[in-house]
Write a structure and sequence with these properties.
Number of helices of chain B: 13
Helix content of chain B: over 70%
Structural class of chain A: alpha/beta
Low-confidence stretches of chain A: 1-16, 573-593
Helix content of chain A: 40-55%
Distance between the termini of chain B: 7 Å
CATH architecture of the largest domain in chain A: 3-Layer(aba) Sandwich
Number of strands of chain B: 0
Oligomer: heterodimer
Strand content of chain A: 5-15%
Mean pLDDT of chain B: 85
Order of helices and strands of chain B: HHHHHHHHHHHHH
Shape of chain A: elongated
Number of domains of chain A: 2
Low-confidence stretches of chain B: none
Largest sheet of chain B: none
Radius of gyration of chain A: 33 Å
C-alpha cells in the first residue's frame, strides 16, 4: 500500500490520540467525581482530629438532639450518639471495605487471569471451572451463611466478597491476555529469551492496566454498597459505625428527625455514585468512546441539489462527482471518495478496480444506500434510470432494493444471518420485494438454488449457514441477489474470500446469470484477472478518484495512467498476483466515530 | 441436545456437592459456639461437650458431611437445632416467597430492558441518551436507598401500598400483588440498569454486522431486520447476563425482604446464620445451589433454541 493510500484512511489520518491522563483532566465528570472522592477521603483521614465525639459515645441528655445543638452540629441519634462523628467514622469503614473488596478481587482476578490467559489450555480450563463455580453462587447469601465463620467482622466479610467479585476481573484479564499473547512484540520478546515472568510483568500487564484501573473504581463501589447493605441488615458488630447501620437507625426514627436518615444516605449515595461515574470517565479515557448506536438509514446527504447532473436517458446508472466523507475525531470531514463519476448501460458490465482503501466499496455502498451511519455524502448525484437515489429515505430506497438494484457481498459467511436457515432468509427476501405466497416463494427459492448450481437444493434450503461451505454460501447469496430479477447487480469482491477453484465457477455463474436476466453488473474488485474475464468496461480507482476508464480492451492494451500500468504489471507476473483480501470496511472507515 | 443437557446436569450436581462441602467445612469451625449458643446461659464446658457428642459434632467434619449427604439423598434434610422444625418444608415455603418476588421482577426486567435496549440501539440520538441516563441512575443509586425512599413516599405518605408484610398469592392475588409491588420495583430498577445496557450493547454490535447490510439490500423492512434478525442474535449474550442477573437478584432479595419484612428465605437464612443453625444453613445452601443449577440449565436450553450452532453440538 502506498503512502498516499494510507493517508486517506481516516483512522490513520487522525491526529495521534492524547494520553488517557490528559483526556481525563479535560473531562468535567472525572474532575468533579475525583474532587468529591478526595474531599470524602480527606475527611475520613482527619476523623481522629476533627470528630467531636467517639462514634459510640452515648449521652443520655443528647438523645435525638436537633441539629445545631452545641457539640452536636448535625444532632444526635436515638442513642444519644453524635451524628457528625458517626458519619466521619463511617467514611473510614466504607473506604476500608472498598479497599479490601477491590484489592482482593483484583489480586485474585489479575493473577489467575494472567495465568489462565498466558499459559496452556489445561491450566486455563481448570481456572475457568473454578471461577465459573464462584460466579454461579449467590454471594450475599454466602456472606450471611458464613457469619458464624467471619464472626460478623466486616473486614473478613469484604475479604470473602472480594473473592466473589474476582471472576469478573479474571474474565477481563484472561481475554486481554489471550488477545495480546500472540502479538508480534510478545513473540519477539519470547524469541529473544525473556522469561515468562518478565514478559507477563512487562508487556502483558501494561496492556491490562487500563481495564484494571477502571474495574477498581466499580469494584470499590460495589464493595461499599454491599457493606452498607449488610450493616443495614445488622450483619456484623453494631459497634462498627457504618452508613448502613446509620441508615437503619435513621429509618426507624424517620418521623422524629428525617435528617438522621438523610445524612448517611446522601454521603453513601455520593460515595458510590462518584465511584461509578469516575469509573465511566476512566473507561472513556482509556478505551475511547464506545460505539454509538445509529438508525438504519440512508446516508446523510449534504448540500443536495435536486437539479444537479441530469442523467442521460440511455444510461441505467450514472454517478456524477460523488464525494463521500467521514468525520474525523476533530470534527473535520475526511474525504474517502473524491468526485467519482461512473456510468453503466443496461446489460453492461463495469469493473471498478483499485486497491483496498481506494474508495471503490464506498462508492458501491452509496449506490445501495447502505453506507455506514457516520458517512456523509458531501456532493454529487447517483441516478438510476433517471431518478436521483441520493436523498431518498430508507423506505423509498427499500422499494428499489432487491427489485432494481441487488448486491453480492465479499465475505459469504458473515453475510448470512446465523440464526435462520438459508431457505428462511431467501424466502423473506423474495417476499419483501415481490408479493407472493410462502409456498410460491419457497418453490422459487428452490428453483433458484438449483439454478446457481447447488446439488441438493432442499438440503441447502433447510441448512443453517454454519453447515454449508463458503463457496455454497456465495451461491446462496447470489441466488438471493438475483431472486427478484434486478436491473443492476453490484458485486463487491464476490470471489476474494473463496478458494481459487471456486472463484472461476462463481464468475462463470455471474456471467451466465447476467446474460440470462440482462442485468447490468458493477463488479468491484482489486483483481485485474477477474476484470479481464468478465468486464466490458473498466474504471480504475486510486485514492478516492477514478484515474482512468475505458473499454477492457483499451485498458489492457494501452494503459495510460501509471497506476493502471502498475496494476497490470503485477497481474502479468504470475507470482505476484495479489491474493490477500482487502481490509474490511471497518478498517477503511475507522471503527470509532 | 439431551446428552448435552445431561452433561450440564451432571456438572450442576458436582457443583452442588462442592459448594455444600465447602460450606460445611467452613461452618465446622464454629460447632462449639453453636452448642454454647443452644445451651444459653446454662452452658458449662461439660454440658457443651455432652451436647456436641449427642449432636455428633465431635466426629470428623468429613464424616458429619457424608452423614448429612446420606440423609439428604434419602430425602431427610434434618431438623432445626433450635426449634426442631423439619428443614425441607420450611426452606421450600420461604423460597417460594422469594421466588415469587424474584421471578416477577425478572420478567418485568426482561421486558423493559429489551424495549429500552432495542429502542436505544436502533434509534440512536435522543432515544439512546434517555436509555443510557436511566441505566446510569439505576446504577449509581444503591437499591437500599431506593427501597427506603419508595416506602416512605408510596406506603407511608401516600398510603397507596402496604409498607411491610406479605400475602400469599393463593390467599388473595390482589393483595399479593400489592405486597410485592415496592420490592419488585426496587429489584427491577437495579436489574434494568444492568440488562438494558447489555441489550443495547449487543444490539449495536449486531446492527453493524455484514448480514444486516445484506438483508437491507434485499429490501427487507427495517422492523424485521431489527426485531427478527438482530434481536434474535443479540439475545444469546444477553441471556447469559440474565442468568447472572437472576443470581444477583436472589442476593438482592435478601436485603429487600428485610426492609419490607417479607417472610422469604433471606430473613430465614439470616436468623439461622445468627444462631448457627447448621441444618437450616445447609438446607438453604443446597436449595439455592440447586436453584442456580436449574437456572443455568434453563439458560443453556433456551440458548440452544436461539442459537442453531449450540443446538447441533
Amino acid at each position: 500500500m502506498s503512502i498516499e493510500e494510507l493517508s486517506i484512511d481516516p483512522g490513520l489520518a487522525a491526529p495521534p490520540r492524547k494520553s488517557p491522563l490528559r483526556r481525563l483532566l479535560k473531562d468535567p465528570q472525572a474532575l468533579i467525581t475525583s474532587a468529591l472522592l478526595l474531599v470524602i477521603i480527606v475527611l475520613g483521614l482527619l476523623t481522629p482530629w476533627i470528630a467531636p465525639h467517639e462514634p459510640n459515645e452515648a449521652q443520655l441528655n443528647a438523645i435525638n438532639a436537633v441539629p445545631g445543638t452545641p457539640g452536636y452540629p448535625l444532632g444526635a441519634d436515638q442513642n444519644g450518639r453524635d451524628i457528625a462523628s458517626r458519619l466521619l467514622h463511617s467514611i473510614n469503614t466504607s473506604i476500608i471495605a472498598g479497599l479490601i473488596g477491590a484489592s482482593v478481587a483484583l489480586i485474585i482476578g489479575v493473577t489467575f487471569g494472567l495465568i489462565g490467559g498466558y499459559f496452556g489450555r489445561r491450566l486455563r480450563s481448570a481456572t475457568e471451572w473454578v471461577f465459573s463455580l464462584i460466579m454461579t453462587f449467590p454471594g450475599l447469601l454466602l456472606l450471611i451463611i458464613l457469619m458464624p465463620v467471619t464472626k460478623g467482622d466486616y473486614r473478613a466479610t469484604m475479604l470473602i466478597f472480594g473473592v466473589l467479585l474476582s471472576p469478573g476481573i479474571y474474565r477481563i484479564v484472561r481475554n486481554l491476555v489471550i488477545g495480546v499473547k500472540n502479538e508480534l512484540y510478545v513473540d519477539a520478546a519470547r524469541v529473544s529469551g525473556l522469561s515468562n515472568l518478565r514478559i507477563l510483568s512487562r508487556h502483558v500487564l501494561f496492556v491490562v492496566r487500563g481495564p484494571i484501573i477502571i474495574a477498581a473504581a466499580f469494584l470499590a463501589g460495589s464493595a461499599i454498597s454491599l457493606q452498607s447493605g449488610l450493616a443495614f441488615l445488622g450483619v456484623g458488630s453494631n459497634l462498627v459505625p457504618s452508613f448502613g447501620a446509620m441508615i437503619a437507625d435513621g429509618f426507624t426514627n424517620l418521623y422524629v428527625d428525617p435528617t438522621q436518615f438523610i445524612w448517611p444516605s446522601v454521603l453513601l449515595g455520593t460515595l458510590t455514585a462518584s465511584l461509578v461515574l469516575l469509573g465511566n470517565s476512566l473507561r472513556d479515557a482509556f478505551e475511547g468512546a464506545k460505539l454509538k448506536p445509529s438508525k438504519l438509514a440512508t446516508p446523510h446527504v449534504q448540500a443536495q441539489r435536486r437539479d444537479a447532473g441530469e442523467a442521460r436517458s440511455d444510461e441505467l446508472l450514472s454517478v456524477e462527482g460523488l464525494v463521500i466523507a467521514y468525520p474525523a475525531p476533530s470534527g473535520q470531514l475526511n474525504e474517502v471518495v473524491k468526485g467519482v463519476t461512473l456510468s453503466l448501460r443496461a446489460g453492461e458490465t463495469l469493473g471498478l478496480v483499485g486497491e483496498s482503501g481506494s474508495g471503490k466499496t464506498q462508492t458501491a455502498f452509496s449506490i445501495l444506500g447502505v453506507l455506514p451511519p457516520e458517512a456523509v455524502v458531501v456532493r454529487g448525484t447517483i441516478h438510476l434510470e433517471g431518478r436521483n437515489l441520493l436523498g431518498l429515505k430508507e423506505r423509498e430506497l427499500r422499494e428499489l432494493r432487491g427489485r432494481e438494484i441487488a448486491y453480492i457481498p465479499q465475505e459469504p459467511m458473515s453475510n448470512l444471518d446465523p440464526s435462520y436457515t438459508v431457505g428462511a432468509q431467501l424466502v423473506e427476501g423474495i417476499r419483501a420485494s415481490a408479493r407472493m405466497s410462502g409456498t410460491d416463494a419457497k418453490a422459487r427459492v428452490l428453483a433458484l438454488l438449483e439454478r446457481v448450481g447447488i446439488q441438493n437444493p432442499q438440503r441447502t434450503f433447510d441448512s443453517y449457514p454454519h453447515q454449508i461451505s463458503g463457496g455454497m454460501a456465495q451461491r446462496v447469496l447470489i441466488a438471493g441477489a438475483v431472486a427478484s430479477r434486478p436491473k443492476l447487480l453490484i458485486a463487491d469482491e464476490p470471489t476474494t474470500a473463496l478458494d481459487v477453484t471456486v472463484q472461476a465457477e462463481i464468475l462463470d455463474l455471474i456471467r451466465d446469470l447476467q446474460a440470462e436476466l440482462n442485468m447490468a453488473v458493477l463488479l468491484v474488485t482489486h483483481n485485474f484477472g477477474v476484470v479481464a474475464d468478465i468486464c466490458d468496461r473498466i474504471a480504475v480507482m486510486q485514492n478516492g478518484q477514478v484515474v482512468e476508464s475505458g473499454t477492457a480492451l483499451e485498458l489492457f492494451h494501452e494503459p495510460k495512467h501509471p497506476y493502471t500500468q502498475m496494476l497490470l504489471g503485477s497481474i502479468l507476473d504470475e507470482h505476484t498476483v495479489r491474493t490477500d483480501p482487502p481490509a474490511p470496511v471497518a478498517a477503511v472507515v475507522g471503527e470509532r466515530n | 441436545m439431551i446428552t448435552y443437557a445431561l452433561r450440564r446436569l451432571g456438572a450442576g450436581i458436582l457443583l452442588a456437592l462442592l459448594v455444600t462441602l465447602i460450606t460445611f467445612f467452613l461452618l465446622s469451625g464454629s460447632l462449639e459456639s453453636v452448642a454454647r449458643e443452644r445451651l444459653g446461659s446454662a452452658a458449662t464446658p461439660e454440658s457443651i461437650k455432652g451436647l456436641m457428642t449427642r449432636l455428633g459434632f465431635d466426629r470428623p467434619a468429613i464424616v458429619q458431611y457424608l452423614d448429612w449427604l446420606g440423609s439428604v439423598l434419602r430425602g431427610d434434610f434434618g431438623t432445626s437445632l433450635f426449634t426442631s422444625q423439619p428443614v425441607a418444608p420450611a426452606v421450600a415455603a420461604r423460597l417460594g416467597v422469594t421466588l415469587s418476588l424474584v421471578v416477577t421482577a425478572l420478567i418485568i426486567t426482561v421486558i423493559i430492558s429489551i424495549a429500552l435496549g432495542v429502542w436505544a440501539a436502533s434509534r440512536g440520538g435522543v432515544a439512546d441518551k434517555i436509555s443510557q441516563g436511566l441505566s446510569l441512575v439505576g446504577y449509581i443509586v444503591p437499591g437500599l436507598l431506593i427501597a427506603i425512599v419508595l416506602v416512605a413516599v408510596l406506603a407511608v405518605n401516600l398510603k397507596l401500598l402496604p409498607a411491610t408484610g406479605f400475602t400469599p398469592f393463593a390467599q388473595n392475588p390482589a393483595k399479593w400483588a400489592a405486597s410485592i409491588t415496592i420490592p419488585v420495583i426496587v429489584l427491577v430498577i437495579g436489574g434494568v440498569a444492568n440488562m438494558a445496557a447489555q441489550v443495547r450493547g449487543s444490539m449495536i454490535d449486531e446492527l453493524r454486522k455484514d448480514y444486516v447490510r445484506t438483508l437491507r439490500t434485499r429490501g427487507i423492512p427495517t422492523r424485521s431486520i431489527v426485531l427478527r434478525h438482530a434481536l434474535r442474535n443479540a439475545a444469546s449474550p444477553a441471556l447469559t447476563v440474565l442468568s447472572l442477573e437472576f443470581i444477583q437478584m436472589l442476593g438482592g432479595a435478601l436485603i429487600i425482604e428485610n426492609v419490607f419484612a417479607l417472610p422469604g428465605y433471606g430473613q430465614y437464612a439470616f436468623n439461622a446464620s445468627l444462631q448457627g443453625d447448621i441444618p437450616i444453613i445447609m438446607g438453604i445452601t443446597l436449595f439455592s445451589v440447586m436453584l442456580v443449577v436449574t437456572v443455568n440449565l434453563l439458560t443453556d436450553v433456551v440458548n440452544g433454541w436461539l442459537n442453531p450452532k449450540a443446538r447441533i453440538n
